[in-house]
Amino acid sequence: MGVSRRGFTAASAAGGVLAASGLMRVSDAIAQGITPRRGGTLTTMLTPEPPILQIGVNNQGPTLIAASKIFQGLVKFSPTLEPLPELAQSWTISPDGKVYTFKLQPNVKFHDGTPMTADDVVFSVTKFHFELAPRARAIFSMIESAAAPDPHTVVFTLKQAFEPFLLMFDVTACAIVSKAAFDGRDYRQAPSVQHPIGTGPFRFAEWQRGNFIRLERFADYWKPNQPYLDAIIFRIVPDSQSRRLAMETGQTVLAHSNDIEPFDVPTLQAIPNLAVETKGWEYFSPLAWMEINHRAAPLNDVRVRRAISQAIDRSFITQRLWFGINKPATSPVASTTRFHDPAVKLPPYDPRAAMQLLDAAGLRPNAQGVRASIKHLVLPYGEVWARLGEYLRQSMRAVGIDLVLEATDAGSWARRIGAWEYETSINFVYQFGDPTLGVERTYVSSNIQKVTFTNTGGYANPKVDELFATARTSAAPAARAAAFSEVQKLLVDDVAQVWLMEMSFPTIYDRKLHNVITGGTGVNASFDDMFLAS
Amino acid sequence: MDPSRLPAFLLRRGIKAAIVILAIIVSNFFLIHAAPGDPASVMAGQSGAADERYLAQLRTQFGLDKPLLEQLWIYVRGMLALDLGYSHRQQMGVAALIWQRLPPTLLLTGVAFALAISGGVTLGALAARRVGTWADSVITVIALTFYATPIFWVGLMLVLLFSVVLGWLPSFGMNSVGADLHGIAAVLDVGRHLILPALTLGLFYVAVYARLTRATMLEVADQDFVKTARAKGVPEGRILRRHVLRNALLPVITLAGIQAGQLIGGSILVETVFAWPGIGRLAFEALLARDYPVLLGVFFCTSAMVVIFNLFTDLLYAMVDPRVEVQG
Known about the structure:
Chain B: It is found in: Cell membrane. The complex is a heterodimer. By secondary structure, chain A is of the alpha+beta class. Chain A contains 17 helices and 21 strands. Chain A has a domain of 216 residues: Roll (Dipeptide-binding Protein, domain 3), CATH 3.10.105. In chain A, the strands form 6 sheets. A 6-stranded mixed beta sheet of chain A has the order 14-18-13-17-15-16. A 4-stranded mixed beta sheet of chain A has the order 1-10-9-8, with no helix packed on it. A 4-stranded antiparallel beta sheet of chain A has the order 4-5-7-6, with helices on one face. Chain A is globular. By secondary structure, chain B is an all-alpha fold. Chain B folds into 2 domains: 48 residues, no CATH class; 226 residues, MetI-like fold (Orthogonal Bundle). Chain B has 13 helices and 2 strands, in the order ααααββααααααααα. In chain B, helix 5 packs antiparallel against helix 10 and helix 9 packs antiparallel against helix 10. The model of chain B has no long low-confidence stretch (mean pLDDT 84). Chains A and B meet through helix 4, strand 10, helix 7 and helix 13 of A and helix 2, helix 3, helix 5, helix 7 and helix 11 of B.
């Protein structure tokens, strides 16, 4: 018997290949003169898996992304949040700002073959979303009457002028559903909840839970020759490293939202056939802040809040934790929103000033150098948020505040924020393109409720209440802008929350894919113009 | 074992099992409700906007507005009628949800289990037979390596090698979606997807069984009846199979029985890394979403499986080793 020698080859990770070729170049099909190609399947991902795909019954982020291909709204938004025609061909607004008249596209069919008419629109607005969705309910309660004078005309008369009204009519806020499928039923348990029926370019085909959701081309879509793709497949991949590998190996060609952890973005950016885009979140513009419970001492002292704010290096957070995907916040109103005041500035990063403020507030360091101990409920939304918690602990320690991190899961976090059982935490909230829709709720005293995403911090300032009310009821944009400018200054002076950053999410896609991000809601578009170049 | 005693044995064990499962259901119910947060607050947190009316609507619909004991009674009453309940979050019956996710898990864990037992016992026997030689050392070192390596790391390394570097196998999922495969092609497709997760899950247990088999075989090999057999001139191969291995199998069966009971729970880690649509992930996601009926349903299935496999293991003992008596 001879001795056989075996050579062991170590499989190295070939890590050196990832050279830095990090230039972003958005492929713009029109500029390159590429004509759209019919056919092909888009394979992408969805994280986490949504419980159901019926907008209204469930309005989670992943639900909206998948269902925005199945359903449509009356309008969609440009990157600067101008409303553009979708199911509404055109619209007029009366001079007093109270009457909105929408002309609907003719020849729009639901996936079950029935025509979409003005009745469906009235039902969707005044019944379906009004009943199901808190956000829609708050706005649509201002509608005094809704009428359908003919099958292609809808008239909404408001009780008072409401300038941001049109911002409530895209698919994510008010998807048009079939009246026949829901009227007279329990909306949440209607059969079409499991098999959604919309007017969108793709119809629901198959859902193997935990595995994938498949949508297929709707042949009777109202735009001729569209959509270009034959099908969209959303794979459910729960592990972020597996998702990164799926993009590296080309098993999926589009990653979006939370799919890829920020620290993995530079790796994917270095792959030549992948493009990275951070646009497409203008409508939502999540603004992240360190959530302050104003009831908990010493956080009820504005000097302590300002000290906390000045102890945080926001550019470290956005550059080192989010790798440039996010921008430092400068105001309670995101810069993508039209009433953002660029003159408003947060006090600068200055640990020394922070310590002077803490001294002035009477918080002297003890023998261990600790001035105060504050609890911090870490946001349980993934690793990068845990890292943010660790960074905050370090930066608070540098000015003598002992930040005690508390770990939790999503269910406990939502309950504790809703029940005011926290001292500090992290929160991020969508802005929805207008401060009245997305900002007001966090700061007005009338919205101090034991419910998540209300004014859970308990901040109250009568002047702020008054300014938000003025902005809400004014029909003139100039008057609204003036009120919002003043309210931004007041909120910054009061350090109502410790704003950290304007968030975006990376959309990463194969360069064969065209028209990925075309508007202010990004991957929540219908994808009827998306195509795969050969 | 006396076959005439079997029915009485099964009856006694069946009654015990029913009581155990009922106790598990009740304690699970209280355990789950002790976790902070409820499905309504989770959904409010996820949808980014909420008001009091929304929360109240959801709680009424989910039946959470009733007193806890009444909720328990409704649940137990349903379970006695073999109704696993309804997930209001997913608007589907729990039985249907579990039924969708059970076959992939059984496939994955079943294959991994078969691989672990056959590979582990073979390697262990081989090592014991060649004890002290280079073959024994190689097997022991490999077994120890897989035993000591975290399971997700093995998975990621396998993916890196076979999916990223070599490009031979898919890195996640259970099938090629949209490829429209039928018959044997569809089976092969699932097989290709199955290799990496089954290997990852199986390698750990291969190591466990190999080490256990080797150790017990060496222990048995020193005993007097083996020496007697050898003195009688029984061939070495026959001694190993009939005298050593058969006696060394009892601990292996014990371990296999415990592992088989856990099969249905799957491996959340492997299912997560490989995006395998199994029941372990269903349970984990239900926990995060506080989807009580789904979670209780999965717990019920896993506990029933453990009870059944314990019974099965006891019967198997008696078959392998006639000295073992089954007792109720």
